[in-house]
Amino acid sequence: MTSSIIEVKLPQSSYQVVIASNILSQLGSYLERLDLGQKIILISNPEIFNHYGKIVVDSLTRSGFKVFDHLIPSGESYKNLDTITRIYDSALENRLERSSTMIALGGGVIGDITGFAAATWLRGINFVQVPTSLLGMVDASIGGKTGVNHPQGKNLIGAFYQPRLVFIDPFVLKTLPVREFRAGMAEVVKYGIIWNRDLFEQLEQATTLNNLDDLSCELLQYIIVSSCRAKVDVVVRDEKEVDLRAILNYGHTIGHAIESLTGYGTINHGEAVGIGMVAAGKIAVKLQLWTEEEVKRQNDLIAKVGLLTTFPKILKINEVINVLQTDKKIKAGKVRFILPTEIGKVIISDHVSFEVIKNCLFI
Ligand code: GLY
Q1: Number of the ligand 1 atom closest to the C-alpha atom of 241
Q2: What residues contact 123, with CB distance under 8 A and at least 6 apart?
Q3: Residue 252 catalytic?
Q4: Rounded to two decimals, what is the model's pTM?
Q5: For a 10 Å CB count at each end of the chain, is N or C smaller?
Q6: Among this protein's residues, is 351 annotated catalytic?
Q7: Is residue 249 annotated as a catalytic residue, yes or no?
Q8: Which of the four pLDDT bands, split at 50, 70 and 90, describes residue 318?
């Protein structure tokens, strides 16, 4: 079994990202090392809990923990304050203490909700991430962004709150729908463009990346470890997104606008980020920051992982521009773009005119 441990060293809280196939049944013994209280609430959704709940509960129980489960229906529409209130009710009912722990077993939505509940219950209890989607593994579970949506916008309510452990078992991806796998691959391609040229080139060399079944265990482990390393490298340099961490939003400026206009679901997050990266690449070329040859390589890779590289025809340009103007990442009235200068390197720019954006949207 190949296993990797990445240390996340932050001023207030340091933790490990553990990545190893078939490790889920050992979660309890990893938690024993963390000096946690006895009580754990395991937060998941019914599908994931059905697949992996028993393995996790048995492992935790064997290690002496007292485990309560709390299930949330699947989907972004449950990522709200009502769901948080229900978690607080469970926490109260089961008399959780400051030393108790909330574990997120699920994808990015479960991780974000659980992290926010953990950050705020009793002013902060222990939190552990056990991501079960590729997107959760390579992005959402690391770095402490937690939160829920407000009816007016995504992730408007939240806190930076770091987990005590991120525990990744790539074996659980076997039950991930292919569309979700490809959505996660969008973030993997993103790390290749913003941070790690070797990762990008390894992905280019792979025969096919269309389905999880096409990947060898070694390639999957390499992809997850390299992506997690890239995320950790960025987060430890800028935990609270003062500057550098914004590069993780490559492809997300236009991606968020697409998700918001299509009602969070028609086009999922990774698919929207894929389209956003194509648009951002085109803007970078238009501004003479990046070469045609490299943007083509990027777009070919996005297509290779089975994602769209054209702008959805159902969207209207003015609607996209309106959404961009209300993006919460907007700074002093300027839309912020992350733009590649070469594969593996990006800059942050607040100087892209709406004229240029318009010209680069319909590809
Ligand atoms: N997903 C972007 C970040 O964690 O900053």
Answers
A1: 5
A2: none
A3: yes
A4: 0.95
A5: N
A6: no
A7: yes
A8: confident
